[in-house]
User: Fold these one by one.
Assistant:
Number 1:
Amino acid sequence: DGGITQSPKYLFRKEGQNVTLSCEQNLNHDAMYWYRQDPGQGLRLIYYSQIVNDFQKGDIAEGYSVSREKKESFPLTVTSAQKNPTAFYLCASSIRGSYNEQFFGPGTRLTVL
Amino acid sequence: RKEVEQDPGPFNVPEGATVAFNCTYSNSASQSFFWYRQDCRKEPKLLMSVYSSGNEDGRFTAQLNRASQYISLLIRDSKLSDSATYLCGMDSSYKLIFGSGTRLLVRP
């Protein structure tokens, strides 16, 4: 089955710790995206990558970092510099280019204790 | 002004009703438009793309009005299972931007 997987589904972290969220896709999509969603709110773009070894900051990149070493993988690290990291994190992918629809993974719910 | 705006609702309608949502946008250069459905605590799922000529899929119809810069989603014969949040999305500078969503509640 083709799709996007994210792990873990739930993640708990202590303040001051870095944590990495996994995102893998086997759709052969060039572009991948990370969003953050807070309760009752829309999607805010953290980082995106149109091609391997290249990525750009989105609207709320501060306190986050990414890498894109493989086409299939786009991990997101939430660093201790992110002041309010508790949120629902969604990864998406699309055929390269902004004109194409994006498909989302099931998300990771991060809670900072 | 936000790039994309949606009425948050909730729209509370009885089963069988017809309901419509709008999504206004400010970037006149946007070319691609989409409607997504998001269930509580789940990921958004693509409902339909919105073409210039409109798009219909069963009970769902999407329209684009470029002159007034909005897209619309019409749901006919609402089902209980249509209860969800509906997000609009559109392209903007090599990425998609999304509205905050409109919540629909369909009651028996």
Note: The mean pLDDT of chain B is 93.
Number 2:
Amino acid sequence: NAGVTQTPKFRVLKTGQSMTLLCAQDMNHEYMYWYRQDPGMGLRLIHYSVGEGTTAKGEVPDGYNVSRLKKQNFLLGLESAAPSQTSVYFCASREGAAGDKNIQYFGAGTRLSVL
Amino acid sequence: DAKTTQPTSMDCAEGRAANLPCNHSTISGNEYVYWYRQIHSQGPQYIIHGLKNNETNEMASLIITEDRKSSTLILPHATLRDTAVYYCIVRSYYGQNFVFGPGTRLSVLP
């Protein structure tokens, strides 16, 4: 059982380039999330999805787009990368809406540098 | 979701119990307390959660005060592999996301 898998693990971009980060989960979870973590700071929510075909903005959505065409996959896109988007990106998923099913499981992260 | 306050850093001797405090004085009745940890920039790892009763699992124990305004995560026999940043998070029953503050950096010393 792989859990939450993120690809790629590392990437270096030049300013203005575009790329897509892929998150895949094999736990049949409804909810999926994208976070970013800057050095010495906690995680900040970028976008999230409460089910296939749905997406919503989080705390820091500007400069990012997402898609959830399949339940198991959640894609994060950068259309025109900027140095301020240099960060570590984490994907997470969780099973259900409330209470004891409200536990998020995280991937290993994608380290992105924008030069 | 209620805001939490944690010490910036703590040290613990290997083999001893590590007690990590968290203050959440504005917690409301339907908010749970969750603990996660992050080992050296890996993805955060779930540890334990609770509402008002004390909880224990194979990783840790969670002690919540009777007024629910603070809690303590206890690692009963800390090892070097427990060195990590520990996050205390309070969120509502239907909360959508976790708000991760800076957490407590726990160093387990040999």
Note: Chain A touches chain B at residues 4, 31, 33, 35, 40-45, 48, 50, 56, 58-59, 88, 90, 92, 97-99, 102-109 (CB under 8 Å).
